[in-house]
Write a structure and sequence with these properties.
- The structure holds 3 protein chains of 3 kinds.
- By secondary structure, chain A is mostly helical.
- Chain A contains 14 helices and no strands.
- The two termini of chain A are 12 Å apart.
- Chain C has 2 domains: 171 residues, Response regulator (Rossmann fold, 3-Layer(aba) Sandwich), CATH 3.40.50.2300; 132 residues, Response regulator (Rossmann fold, 3-Layer(aba) Sandwich), CATH 3.40.50.2300.
- In chain C, the strands form 3 sheets. Chain C has a 6-stranded parallel β-sheet with strand order 2-1-3-4-5-12, sandwiched between helices. In chain C, strands 7-6-8-9-10-13 form a 6-stranded mixed β-sheet, sandwiched between helices. A two-stranded antiparallel sheet of chain C has the order 11-14.
- In chain C, strand 1, helix 2 and strand 2 form a beta-alpha-beta unit.
- In chain C, helix 7 packs across helix 8.
- Classes of the chains: A mainly alpha, B mainly alpha, C alpha/beta.
Chain lengths: 342, 320, 341
């Protein structure tokens, strides 16, 4: 029903020059940019200190983590699946990193690599089970969320790793020009790499094809099982990166940092991709949209906190926004569909 | 021999066997396990958890999922106590209003899913956040203490022996659900929509109404569970419902429910709840680390879906 | 430095409302930040408001993170700093993980005092003002052992979040008291400072092991409430119990003889004295180098906000005990701990 153009992954650098400008103005990404600008103006005008350097710095740093969580979910949504275990996997990776440094004595760059590899392994478990059993990833990752988190808490006795090298907290507090966090740069580099993956590489195109129609992809010679497993592994690595950024921010690996069972990551994980126009059925992805969506969410939470509307209502607003966003997206799609039919 | 193989095809046989074995084994190791006080504690846990599981089960029956079960339960729980404490209305009226809120939340879910055609997952993720946010906004995460004595008394009263009054609503709900799913048209509609929405629509069933009714029931059951937790904890705690999600899927799945819809079992889901409660209890009895409860729950879900998958290869009837 | 932070935080696009005030005395806006929503801290709200009124501050507000989670607390603190709050009484969400944010805040010149729980040294907090939790748990255990009298002394210990820096101190202190008195701690159940899991775990434990326990000590708010309710439900079990804090349920149980006593803490005093000290620190006072700080496992700059044992005879007048502790603390606070010129 949608036009052929909109099924192409969006470039992180903006719309392709060849596309008609009206099309761009109807795109999800443009809507998000518009919303971000509008809300930035509203908050800047009404919330005291919203545009201060320190707030811009923390905004960038917090959105770096949220965007990464959104990207982690996005890589699995591409296949038409879900990964409820993002939080549990992320925390497990962070704790592994802490253990490698404190318990084993591995130097920290190696520990980070080792921990991310562990994240990939957890993703492999998810992917392999989804593929082998043929069950929907919802129920598989619901179970593994419980298992990963439970095992992590059992092994760590719910105790934090607090003697990490100062490189972590230094990195988390570093500022470029007074307001730019290097964490945000890490996230943006990862987003660029993902955009490149989906647009320019065979593997990326196979991921999209496997998500759009597994049967057709299989017929055209794509090894769908391997591709799906790969997507889950990628998700594990990205979830791990998000958690490691939190470790850098806190200077400690804390088991409770994603809430009970890692459930606190679920909402940000879905908000980014869904607002960004990634289809839950799979097959279509928008890296730029996910980045913008997650950034919008972070900005809204920050602005609402600053307006002192009551920290406790923020969650309601985010839920309402998710609802409004999917409704708007629905309306936009049917509008586009009608115009194409006409 | 054929008798056994037929039995093994039913949903409740496997879980029942597992329940009995678990009871026998644990009793052999710990004499306290069947003490009257321990049975009472077990029943209290089962009473609430069964309602939580049924709340999810009815949605699984129509082939959807409801992530907001815990949020609805929590919202009903705090509005129940909140209305009593702030407005001073009598407890029975507050119960009715709290349950109405639950039904309302469920209907909102159902209507949104139906009119937008967006997946239940996204809609209930959004409403989970909205309902939970309203809960936190009202309470600022502080509990309401104004639980009236009548409710507290209900929460700790015993019918006879070790049977607490709290199990009575659960038993009524279970019987009602069983009757509805197996004997009433609306139950048949729900299962029909779950097995094949398109075919159900063609055969004259109003799919929209059925989906909304199922979500309304789900909201009602979650709200009852929330009110019962208040009676048990004797406090209107905003965090009620936060950890219901995993359990709500575990018990129906252990009870043989098929996540694609159309096939659920009231009795086997109940046994699923019993198994989970016994295992949780056993871990405490044997001083096994409570942290392992989560691992065991996750493993149980995996084992159950795996077994269901195997069982599904052989044709089975639509059981209850 | 203070004016610098003001210049930054107030320079919103149009937000100039409070930008001009340069007087230190009445532009003090303090935030009292607990680790998460918890009844223990609700006394901070009144304490902050009272102190702001008594000392003529523009605000000393109690702000709660939505959840008991470090990242929520961090975001709240960042937001408040950006809004121009310039002094904080903080319960660290994690003794080490919270230091990073505290350093950022103090980098902008806002003084920080750790309240109710401490940062692990080194930290930018001026000092830590809290219950000497180890001592409180130790004294509570001693009272419990006294109440159990002769015969077997098997103690079950129910305590709070493992992420709370105080929890380990409490576990160690109870063990120490038990060792000294020839009692044994047969079970420690931790991480249960929320009603649902506490209800399940404590009841399940008592159901199975009531006969093997002679006394219960609880060193966190919710377990105290749940255990008091459980003992009431069990009737005449012969189990002695010493709780913690001043929840209505616990106090009523003490009056009814179900529970033997409770260890009071002094959250009101923390909020009030904390605000007082923040104001002093902002107006140029410094912490004395030779101040008579106590020390615990986390920090060497510890000030005890007071603790008191309340039993049936004093359950009605527990508020007086709290106020007495606050007055005692405030009386010589300035000359003991601060250099003000």
């Amino acid at each position: 029903m949608t036009s052929p153009d909109s099924t192409l992954p969006a470039s992180p650098l903006g719309p392709n020059a060849g596309r008609s400008t009206t099309h761009f103005f109807l795109s999800n990404e443009f809507g998000l940019i518009l919303l971000i600008v509008i809300f930035a103006m509203i908050f800047g005008a009404t919330a005291q200190g919203f545009l201060s350097k320190f707030n811009l710095f923390t905004l960038g740093r917090n959105s770096a983590v949220n965007i990464m969580i959104g990207l982690s979910m996005m890589t699995v949504i591409v296949t038409g699946g879900l990964n409820l275990a993002v939080g549990a996997m992320g925390v497990s990776v962070a704790m592994t990193c802490g253990w490698l440094i404190e318990g084993v004595g591995v130097p920290w760059p190696l520990a980070i690599l080792g921990a991310l590899a562990f994240g990939a392994a957890l993703g492999w478990i998810n992917g392999a089970m989804v593929v082998k059993t043929g069950l929907h990833s919802f129920i598989i990752t619901l179970a593994t969320m419980s298992i990963f988190f439970g095992a992590m808490i059992f092994l760590t006795r719910a105790e934090s790793f607090r003697e990490l090298p100062s490189a972590f907290s230094t990195f988390g507090r570093m500022k470029f020009g007074g307001y730019l966090s290097p964490l945000l740069l890490v996230t943006l580099v990862v987003a660029l790499l993902l955009a490149w993956l989906y647009r320019r590489t065979l593997t990326g195109r196979e991921m999209l094809a496997a998500g759009a129609s597994p049967a057709a992809a299989e017929l055209s010679g794509i090894r769908v099982d391997r591709i799906i497993t790969l997507c889950h592994m990628l998700s594990g690595v990205l979830a791990g990166l998000a958690a490691l950024m939190l470790v850098a921010r806190n200077g400690a690996a804390i088991p409770s940092m994603a809430g009970q069972l890692g459930q606190d990551w679920l909402l940000p994980a879905f908000l980014g991709p869904v607002l960004g126009g990634t289809l839950l059925q799979g097959g279509k992805v928008s890296v730029l949209g996910t980045v913008l969506g997650a950034f919008l969410v972070t900005m809204l939470s920050s602005g609402l906190l600053m307006l002192q509307v009551g920290a406790f209502w923020v969650q309601t607003f985010l839920g309402l926004m998710l609802l409004v966003a999917v409704l708007l997206d629905k309306a936009r799609r049917s509008y586009l569909a009608r115009r194409n039919l006409a | 021999m054929t008798q056994i193989s037929r039995l093994s095809r039913t949903d409740w046989f496997g879980p029942l066997l597992a329940t009995i074995i678990a009871i026998v084994v644990i009793r052999a190791f710990s004499a306290n396990f069947l003490s009257s006080f321990n049975i009472q504690i077990l029943l209290l846990a089962i009473a609430v958890n069964a309602l939580v599981a049924y709340s999810q089960m009815i949605i699984i029956a129509i082939g959807q999922m409801n992530l907001s079960v815990g949020a609805i339960g929590g919202l009903a729980a705090i509005s129940f106590v909140g209305m009593i404490e702030v407005w001073g209305i009598p407890a029975p009226l507050a119960v009715i209003l709290a349950l109405a809120i639950g039904v309302g939340c469920g209907v909102i879910n159902g209507v949104l899913i139906r009119i937008t055609g967006i997946s239940a997952f996204v809609i209930t993720l959004a409403t989970l956040s909205i309902f939970k946010g309203i809960n936190l906004g009202i309470t600022e995460a502080q509990p309401f203490y104004g639980v009236p004595d009548s409710v507290k008394a209900f929460g700790s009263a015993l019918v006879f022996g070790p049977i607490p009054w709290l199990v009575v609503p659960t038993v009524l709900v279970a019987v009602g659900l069983w009757f509805m799913l197996s004997r009433m048209p609306v139950g048949r509609f729900i299962l029909a929509v779950g097995s094949n929405e398109h075919a159900a629509g063609l055969s004259g069933i109003s799919v929209g109404a059925t989906v909304i009714i199922a979500h309304g029931i789900s909201g009602l059951l979650a709200a009852i569970a929330g009110v019962l937790v208040v009676a048990r904890l004797q406090i209107g705690q905003p965090s009620i419902g936060d950890d219901w999600l995993i359990l709500s899927f575990a018990a129906p799945v252990i009870g043989g429910a098929i996540l694609a819809g159309g096939h659920v079992s009231v009795s086997a889901t109940f046994l699923g709840v019993v198994i989970v409660a016994i295992i949780t209890q056993a871990l405490v009895l044997f001083n096994i680390d409570p942290f392992l409860v989560q691992v065991v729950l996750g493993a149980l879900i995996l084992a159950a879906v795996g077994l269901n998958k195997l069982r599904a290869r052989a044709p089975i009837g639509q059981g209850t | 430095m203070k004016t610098y932070i003001h210049a930054i935080t107030m320079a919103g696009l149009f937000g100039t409302a409070a930008a001009t005030s340069a007087l230190a005395a009445d532009d003090s806006r303090f935030g009292l930040i607990p680790g998460g929503p918890h009844p223990y801290f609700s006394a901070w709200e009144q304490a902050g408001a009272d102190a702001a009124r008594d000392y003529g501050l523009s605000a000393s507000e109690y702000k709660v993170p939505q959840k008991w989670e470090l990242s929520q607390q961090n975001q709240l603190l960042e937001s408040l700093l950006s809004q121009g709050y310039n002094g904080f009484l903080i319960f660290p969400g994690d003794p080490v993980g919270a230091v990073s944010t505290a350093e950022e805040i103090s980098g902008y010149g806002a003084p920080i005092i750790a309240g109710a729980g401490c940062y692990k040294d080194p930290s930018p907090a001026a000092f830590c003002l809290g219950t000497d939790t180890g001592n409180s748990a130790y004294l509570g255990a001693k009272e419990l052992i006294k109440a159990m009298g002769d015969g077997q002394k098997r103690i079950a210990h129910f305590t709070g979040f493992l992420v709370d820096p105080n929890t380990q101190l409490r576990i160690d202190a109870v063990n120490r008291a038990a060792e000294e008195e020839g009692a044994t701690v047969v079970q420690v159940i931790a991480d249960i400072d929320a009603p649902e899991p506490a209800e399940e775990k404590i009841n399940a434990y008592l159901a199975a092991n009531a006969g093997d326990v002679d006394g219960i000590i609880t060193t966190a708010w919710v377990p105290a409430v749940v255990a008091a309710n459980a003992l009431r439900k069990m009737g005449d079990s012969g189990i002695k119990m010493v709780g913690i804090d001043h929840d209505e349920v616990v106090l009523q149980a003490i009056k009814d003889g179900v529970v033997d006593g409770t260890m009071l803490q002094n959250p009101y005093g923390q909020g009030y004295v904390g605000t007082f000290a923040l104001d002093k620190l902002r107006s140029g006072c410094t912490v004395k180098d030779d101040a008579p700080f106590g020390s615990n496992a986390l920090t060497d700059k510890f000030i005890d906000s007071g603790t008191a044992y309340v039993d049936a005879s004093s359950a009605d007048t527990y508020l007086d005990a709290m106020r007495a502790e606050t007055d005692r603390l405030l009386a010589d606070f300035e000359e003991k701990y601060l250099n003000c010129n």
